[in-house]
Design goal:
233 residues; Rossmann fold; 6-stranded mixed beta sheet; globular; binds adenosine-5'-triphosphate; ATP binding; ABC_transporter-like_CS
């Protein structure tokens, strides 16, 4: 579904992504794990067209994304839930969700809202509440719900567990598992390697802009080198 081949991304003279390649097949949950600054967010931003690669190629459903502007990437079925969530703080929960439906024509929006509220009952209880007054976990749910309103074929999540209390991290990963069971294809970027590898079919390990290891979630979880570097021994 998504094929990334030999991309290189720079910030001025900083070479942040150094020739990485990976792919995501339909129905898979694939995770990119790595320490702070390894290049995980940069990779997602390159896929979603917010940053451009100087080389290589990124194709989605067989079509090159090289010249597709980021707002059109969403219409092609690729939704990014960015790090830090970027929800509209001065709008209500429901208004935020409606903003996620901007690629839809109107009639299905009510149904989509119901689908999101079923997945996140907490948001339903708070549909009139200003998004800025939600807790961190609720804001993450809202950002994910908003992305789902665009009916993504591929959902990209950038550090969904960041800043959340353990109980909320658990809830977010449970939701990721439910989405996986329902057939959603997910590319998950995480520093929480343990949680990410536990829900992922496959994973790639990024170190300073390069992929250094890949394997199934289970293989990476049991690898001594990964345990030592990312799973606290
Ligand atoms: P984190 O989990 O901390 O977000 P990450 O793996 O997502 O880490 P990136 O944010 O992709 O890492 O950063 C990769 C590298 O690119 C880092 O060295 C970072 O300092 C650098 N970088 C990221 N954004 C910029 C920017 N806007 N300008 C210059 N350098 C940047």
């Amino acid at each position: 579904m998504l094929k990334v081949e030999d991309i290189n991304v720079y910030y001025g003279s900083i070479h942040a992504i150094k020739g990485i390649s990976f792919e995501v097949q339909e129905g898979e949950v694939v995770t990119l794990i790595g320490a702070n600054g390894a290049g995980k967010s940069t990779t997602l931003n390159a896929v979603s067209g917010l940053l451009r690669s100087k080389t290589g190629s990124i194709s989605f459903l067989g079509e090159s994304l090289a010249k597709v502007p980021s707002h059109k990437v969403v219409a092609k079925g690729l939704a990014l839930v960015p790090e830090g969530r970027r929800i509209f703080l001065q709008m209500t929960v429901q208004e935020n969700l409606e903003m996620g439906a901007f690629t839809q024509k109107g009639s299905g929006i009510q149904q989509d809202l119901e689908m999101v509220y079923e997945l996140f009952p907490r948001l339903k209880e708070r549909y009139k509440q200003m998004a800025g007054t939600l807790s961190g976990g609720e804001q993450q749910m809202l950002a994910m719900g908003r992305a789902l309103m665009s009916h993504p074929k591929l959902l990209m999540l950038d550090e969904p567990s960041m800043g959340l209390a353990p109980i909320l991290v658990e809830q977010i990963f449970e939701i990721i598992q439910n989405l996986h069971k329902a057939g959603t294809t997910i590319l998950l970027v995480e520093q929480n390697a343990q949680a990410a590898l536990s829900v992922a079919d496959r994973g790639y390990v990024l170190e300073t802009g390069k992929i250094v290891t890949t394997g199934t979630g289970a293989e990476l979880l049991s690898s001594p080198a990964i345990k030592k570097a990312y799973l606290g021994g």
